[in-house]
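Figure 6 in text form: structure in, sequence out.
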C-alpha cells in the first residue's frame, strides 16, 4: 500500500511541475493550450536551442528529475542534499535534452527536398 501512495505522489509532483511550467510558457509568449498551428509557430520562433532548453530541460527534464528526487526522499535513499541536487541537475539536463531533440522535428515540420532557394536573379 505504501508503494501505491508513493506512486500517486510521484505522479502528482510531476504533473504539478508541468502545470507550473505551462504557466511559465507565457513568458516566451507561447500559448501552451490551444490549436496546434498557432502554438507550433510560437515554438518555431524560439529556434532549436531555446526549444530544447525551454520545452525539453525546463519541461519534461525537470518533471522527470523531480519525480526521481521525490522517490529518493520518500524511500529514504537520499544521500544528502548536495548529492540529490547534483542528481537532479544531471537528470534534468540529460533527459530534457534528449526529449527536446527528439521532439524538435515535430515542431520544425518536414524539410523540403530539394530545397527551394527562390528564383535566381
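Output sequence:
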Amino acid at each position: 500500500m505504501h508503494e501505491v501512495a508513493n506512486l500517486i505522489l510521484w505522479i502528482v509532483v510531476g504533473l504539478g511541475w508541468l502545470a507550473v511550467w505551462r504557466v511559465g510558457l507565457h513568458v516566451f509568449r507561447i500559448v501552451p493550450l490551444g490549436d496546434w498551428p498557432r502554438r507550433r509557430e510560437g515554438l518555431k520562433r524560439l529556434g532549436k536551442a531555446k526549444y530544447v532548453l525551454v520545452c525539453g530541460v525546463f519541461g519534461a527534464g525537470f518533471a522527470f528529475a523531480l519525480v526521481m528526487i521525490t522517490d529518493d526522499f520518500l524511500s529514504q535513499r537520499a544521500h544528502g542534499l548536495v548529492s540529490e541536487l547534483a542528481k537532479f541537475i544531471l537528470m534534468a539536463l540529460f533527459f530534457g535534452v534528449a526529449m527536446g531533440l527528439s521532439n524538435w522535428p515535430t515542431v520544425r515540420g518536414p524539410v523540403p527536398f530539394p530545397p527551394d532557394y527562390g528564383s535566381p536573379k
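Caption detail: The mean pLDDT is 83.
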